[in-house]
Amino acid sequence: MDEMTPSPVLDAADQTLIMNMGPQHPSTHGVLRLLLEIDGETIVRIMPDIGYLHTGIEKTCEAKFYQQVVPLTDRIDYLCPMTNNLTYCLAVEKLLGLEIPARAQWLRVMLNELTRINSHLVWLGTHAMDIGAMTVFLYCFREREEILRLFEAVSGQRMMTSYFRIGGIAIEPPLDFFGRVKTFIDAFPEHIDEYENLLTQNPIFVMRTKGVAHLTKEDALALTATGPTLRASGVDVDLRRDAPYSGYENFKFNVPIATEGDVYARYLVRVQELRESQKIVKQTLEGIPEGPVKADAPKVVLPDREKMKTQMEALIYHFKIVTEGFTVPEGEVYQAVESPRGEMGYYVVSDGGAKPYRVHMRAPSFANLQSLQKMCKGRLIADVVAAIGSIDIVLGDCDR
Amino acid sequence: MALEPAVTDLEELKSHPEVACLVAWNAAAVEGAKFDRNELTVYVERTALRGACTALKNDGALQYDSLSDLTCVDWFPGAPRFEVVYHLFSTVTKKRVRLKVRLTGEDAAVDSLTSLWPGADFFEREVFDLFGVRFNEHPNLKRILMPDNWEGHPLRKDYPVEGYR
């Protein structure tokens, strides 16, 4: 217990030194500040100091209509905006008891897996760069650029997409969209091979990662780690398979597991996940059903612009939704999805009004960060950099 | 998919193994339960929280081995004021259960779960920071998101969304 939770007072013994790392440090992936207690170059204790990006999003949500919260969710985890949009929309749809058309569900899955690829590419590039492999970063960002262009094509935005809406999806994707996704996704396995050629057998990379920042299965569970961090320690949990949402039960994919629990294992798990995501996107392209992309719920979903010009009711509903919002029956739901970093959960409470009474985001980065102390104890400072990279932390997600 | 009405009858809900397990463990500690929108909520007496979590964690069939989420809801000016919400998840059965503890505004404190799951640390600090709910026996209960010298607890309902206090 003592070693897992840093004690509040730094009573540095004669031998140890307190060192500050961050918040403005390139390898802390944002504004993470770490207080390191070191003995020579060996870590005795790590105390993460977070909150530099805290913007009170949970509080802001309570003052907005349900549909106005969607753009806020983008800004939590800026590397997987679609996943955040999806989790929030699913939670509110569950509160409303709203059924989503199949086409919208498939599109959501497709875009979510593209988001996962996008997020893993940023992780891979920056993680490898932290460890000293510059080139991988450039390769990863080349592919990521293409994904951002795809996001821009559907939503008009590269990063803060807000493309998913309560009740479906904002608009049908543009005509050439599926062709572009296909071109990208067909070429993608070769790109993964390129990254793997640069890293998987690379002796320097292997020496920096193998056996480093070890986390056992028991510790990972006790420290509430989720996602690839947990799976690399040998726990077989993936919410896409175990608690399917948004039609994930229709797709075939494997859940990569590793048992070593070190930085290298987490690397292998995430690279395998890139391949699995590629397979899922391929399946969505092959079987995407025809039909509407919005639920038939005029009191919740904004009407088409065309209808607004010709139908009185559509105009009235539009006016009502925009000015008064829509009411949601009293209740509470917890919706969890498998984000690239782990379990992304939204706990939404409704008091029957048009604004959420409480929105809580269970952020995977926030929970996973707690494993850092356990991973780094007794290791060198240089390993801290590898460990931070391996839990794939996003500080916007952490601080909200 | 129309919404089905919530089931709140404790006798009826004993068909859920989670409720049955907790009632068998200590019937006096279970204040009520609710099954709504396919999610099970059990209200637990506040001194019994850690025991209830231990019972669910150690139960051979249920095996709620991970703490998924921990948060709080402020029902100000209603009473009791706070509801601390725990989401447990089993990595074996892949099921979820929600535990809730009701706390009054004057004496908002509940036992910490850090001895069961050290990972409850950050979550409890967050609830303390933003709601002012205290966690007994927490090893390091101090603010985590707000600055250390901040006054007030921002997620309380009597704290304004905008403007200065």
Which structural traits does this protein have?
heterodimer, A: 400 residues, mainly alpha, Cytochrome-c3 Hydrogenase, chain B, 3-stranded antiparallel β-sheet, 17 helices, B: 165 residues, alpha/beta, Beta Polymerase, domain 2, two-stranded parallel ribbon
SSE blueprint:
The complex is a heterodimer of chains A (400) and B (165).
Chain A: E1 17-21, E2 33-39, E3 42-49, H1 57-61, H2 70-74, H3 81-96, H4 102-131, H5 134-155, E4 164-165, E5 168-169, H6 177-199, H7 203-209, H8 217-222, H9 228-231, H10 239-242, H11 263-287, H12 305-310, H13 312-324, E6 331-339, E7 342-350, E8 358-362, H14 364-368, H15 371-376, H16 381-390, H17 395-399
Helix pairs in contact in A: 3-4, 4-5, 4-11, 4-16, 5-6, 6-11
Chain B: H1 10-13, H2 17-25, E1 30-36, E2 39-44, H3 49-58, E3 66-74, E4 82-89, E5 96-103, E6 109-111, H4 120-131, E7 134-136
Parallel strand pairs in B: 2-5, 6-7
Antiparallel strand pairs in B: 1-2, 3-4, 4-5
- Write down how many β-strands of chain B occur, each being a DSSP E stretch of 2 or more residues: 7
Shape label of chain B: globular
> What is the CATH third-level topology name of one domain in chain B?
Beta Polymerase, domain 2
Low-confidence stretches of chain B: none
| Side-by-side strand order of the widest sheet of chain B | 1-2-5-4-3
Largest interface: chains, residues each: A-B, 52 and 47 residues
Strand-and-helix sequence of chain A, N→C? EEEHHHHHEEHHHHHHHHEEEHHHH
CATH architecture heading of one domain in chain B: 2-Layer Sandwich
Category from helices, strands and their pairing of chain B: alpha/beta
Shape verdict of chain A: globular
What does the largest sheet of chain A look like? 3 strands, antiparallel
* Quaternary class: heterodimer
Question: What's the rounded overall pLDDT mean of chain A?
Answer: 88
Gross CATH architecture of chain A: Orthogonal Bundle
The gyration radius over C-alpha positions of chain B equals 17 Å
**In what order do the strands lie side by side in the largest sheet of chain A?**
1-2-3
Give the distance, in angstroms, between the N- and C-terminal Cα atoms of chain B: 44 Å
CATH class of chain A: Mainly Alpha
Note the beta-strand portion of chain A.
Answer: 5-15%
What is the name of the CATH superfamily of one domain in chain B? NADH:ubiquinone oxidoreductase Nqo5 subunit
